Amino acid sequence: MPEKLPEIVRNQPEDKPYLVTGHRLYMIGAQDGGFPQRGEHMPHEMWGIWLPPIKLFNGFWLWLEDDWIGKADRFVMEPFGCRFVYERKEIELERFQWAAHTRGAMALELTVRNLTQAPVQKSLALVIESNLMPVWLSERMGRKDGRDTVRCDRESGLITWKDAENPWSAAMICDQPMEAFELFGDDRAHSVRQTCDTADKDGRIKEYRNENTSCCKATFSLRLAAGESRRVSFFFGGSESSEEEAGEQARTLRENREELLEEKKERYRKLGGRASLSFAGEPVLEQMYHWNQYINDWIQRDIPGVGEGVVAGYAEFPWWFGNDTNYILPALLMQGEVEICKETLRLLRRASLEVNGNGRVIHEMSNNGVVFYEGMTTETPQFADCVWQIYCFEGERTFLEEMYDFCKEGMRWIESVSEEGLPRGYGISEIAGLDCMCCDVAILAVRGYEVMSKMAGALKREEDAAYFEEKFRTLWDIFHREFFVPETGFYGDMVATGREIIERAESWKHSLKSFPITPEDEIEGEDSCRQDKSPREKREKERLGQRMADVITLAKETGTERRRAYQLFGLGHSTIAVEFGYVTGKQARELLAAQEQWREKECFQIDGIMPLALGRRMQAYGYSREPEKVMQVLRQTGEGFGAVMPGATSEIYPDRGCFVQGWNSFATMWPYFSVIFGVRPRAGEKELILQPCICPDMGKISLTGVMIAGRPFSFFLDFEEGRGRIRVEIPSSEWRVNLVWEDEEAPGPEIVAEVCD
Question: Which CATH architecture has domain 8-269?
Answer without folding.
Answer: Distorted Sandwich (2.70)
